[in-house]
Amino acid sequence: MILDIIAGARPNFIKIAAVIHAINERNKKGYIIKYRLIHTGQHYDKNMSENFFTQLNIPKPQINLNAGGGTQAEQTGAIMLGYEKLLSTTFVPNICIVVGDVTSTMACAIVAKKALCKVAHIEAGIRSNDLSMPEEINRLVTDSITDYFFTTTLTASNNLNVQGVAAKNIFFVGNTMIDTLMNFRNKLSKPKFWNELKLEKKKFLLLTIHRPNNVDDKMRIKQYLQVILDNSKDYKIVFPVHPRTKQIIHTLNIESNRLFFVEPQGYLQFNYLAQHAFAVITDSGGVTEETTYMGVPCLTLRDNTERPETITIGTNELIGTTPESLMPYLQKLFDGQWKKGAIPEKWDGKAGERIVSKLLEINKNEKYFSCL
Ligand code: UDP
């Protein structure tokens, strides 16, 4: 069986790590699963890309399509051209694995499908039902042409059912992002600035903001920061700044001896911070899952989520996107009233292995390897 594994952006690297480790384990047991790891180049900063390969023990990608930068359309086009050329000048694998909901996910799924390659989507079926998010468009397009749907929750499986996907192609396997967290939990490590900033466990808040509707409005970020500073006692606030957010952060003129802007963190450092934070305030999707797993309170600066279990089962709350809506939640948090939460079903570290096992089973019955 030959697979293409596509990864383009930070959350992708974290999710594919679990699949690659599961393949390696199988190969140690005598299976022959070959794969090409293809980096589209969507995220190319060292802090957003290369460091993850080193920290998560992922082999260097065999191919880099170098399709970073540009508008949504430019990036989609560049990735599609790069991947199409690769398939036409080399070969079409048995299955193309795409993960998550970034531009690379959608672009490579389209190219693979048109080359008559089967497409497997990891983290299929999650839905925010908010078409103002580019990620939701990527999810819908990808799932409309996917052959094998690997889901993180039964809600996601059900969303696919409702959309008419045949039940035999939907596999509820659990969450590869949690596999990676479980795998690396005892390797999490303090960021270099921990001592310099005199951080203490459970005495600081961790903040991440990068979604376009939060970042594009400069005043909104400023007000978020002001509300957080005004309602967080003497707790420090650590804010790893995503490249998209960086452009505006220096124009905000907001200063406090409790607020620290830092570079995007390595995976091991970021999750060390998340694990030891009093709470995490974020608009990320993946971070809401990791905090749910670690039992850390999470306040999500969004109006909706494609990961409802982080709220119904986990430690997450949807705050909305107006700075004033944060206030009552911060009060609840500092009053010690935050829910404890639990871990959703099958977030148990075995999703990668379940996916590989299913792919082997599928591939046993189908012969569609072709060379162009
Ligand atoms: N993350 C990281 N360093 C950071 C911020 C986040 O390693 O400075 C990790 C985090 O642990 C999670 C993933 O990046 O696994 C989430 O990525 P992001 O928020 O960019 O994407 P989303 O999940 O919102 O699509």
From TrEMBL:
<feature type="domain" description="UDP-N-acetylglucosamine 2-epimerase">
    <location>
        <begin position="32"/>
        <end position="359"/>
    </location>
</feature>
<dbReference type="GO" id="GO:0008761">
    <property type="term" value="F:UDP-N-acetylglucosamine 2-epimerase activity"/>
</dbReference>
<protein>
    <submittedName>
        <fullName>UDP-N-acetylglucosamine 2-epimerase (Non-hydrolyzing)</fullName>
        <ecNumber>5.1.3.14</ecNumber>
    </submittedName>
</protein>
<comment type="similarity">
    <text>Belongs to the UDP-N-acetylglucosamine 2-epimerase family.</text>
</comment>
<dbReference type="Pfam" id="PF02350">
    <property type="entry name" value="Epimerase_2"/>
</dbReference>
<dbReference type="InterPro" id="IPR003331">
    <property type="entry name" value="UDP_GlcNAc_Epimerase_2_dom"/>
</dbReference>
<dbReference type="InterPro" id="IPR029767">
    <property type="entry name" value="WecB-like"/>
</dbReference>
<keyword id="KW-0413">Isomerase</keyword>
